[in-house]
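Example record

Each entry pairs one chain with its bound ligand, zinc ion.
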Amino acid sequence: MSTTRENLPGDAAQFVLDTFLTLVRIDSLSGDEGAVAERLRGYLHDAGCQVWSDHVGNLLARRAGHGAGGMLPPLLLSAHMDTVEPGHGIQPRIVHGVVRSDGTTILGADDKAGVAAILTALRQTNHTGASCCPVEVVFSVQEEVGLVGAKHLDLTQLAAKTAIVMDSAGPVGSIVARAPSQDTMTIEITGHASHAGVAPEQGVSAIVVASKAIAVMRLGRIDPETTANIGVIRGGMATNIIPAHVTMRGEARSLDEARLAAQTSHMRECFETAARDLGAKVEFWVERSYSGINLSPESAVVKRVSRAMAATGVAASLISTGGGSDANIFMGAGIETANLGFGMMGPHSVEEHIAVADLEQAASILIAVLSDPQG
Ligand SMILES: [Zn+2]
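Structure tokens for the complex follow.
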């Protein structure tokens, strides 16, 4: 990892680690990002940015370019501020060059390592006075609960047509070239309530209808590009009442639109068939949560990021993911977006960790992107 040290000056290496450790110690579960946003406001201001927040709590910033980069179009850098459970009172520790939690919480490298790398790149390109393109920043809220912040972002506040999102698991050097589209479903089954002991013949159990439907439904991994899940089920009042209502929430994702449509209609059919067979009613609502990503290796943003990676001694590698991120929302809005991996491992678990060297390398890559005279 000598390459890392050569590319990231000593005080920047210290800054990225200190900033990361500071940020993970500030609780910021989804919907409760206020304290971390306040701290980030200070960091952004110190890096020479104009900073503001929007009506849902997203933190936005911009900074003019300088040197040769001053004439380039702006680049958007983005990461999310919220973390998942268990995320209260995170106590980071460094063991053999790897940052972990104390084992009772997540670490929050997802996505505060991304935030720290962005802040370090902004600070470094501000202090050195070297060439830097104009920059816009979005630190979003509630990414983990359905990309809520990004979906509510007023994109007319941004001029950038190119973006880098720092929010992918996987090694430094990975660029998400493909990510799925997702449909989210809400299903309501209405049967008929009756006394379970006195007159069960007069009841239609919504729970039985739901279970018959789910038992024949294709779920989990459908094919290499498609997944599906029923994740929430609620219903019933008491053991002596045939349950009249069940509500469920589910999802399907695919890298392929036709396969997604087929899976979503298969799930609908399973519920409708079971309801018809047993004399219940079903309502099935589908919402497009986000659309997929299909980034060409020849796209300008992939080339730009690959150049920066090469300059810092890292080989770029295009990857496919099953997860959605704010990058899906930016892409859907016509902003060409590369979501980068930066070495966070085991996100959404108490085993989550990141190597200090990877954190530094991620910052190095972003500095090289911002300083790239070609833009
Ligand atoms: Zn994330």
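The radius of gyration is 24 Å.
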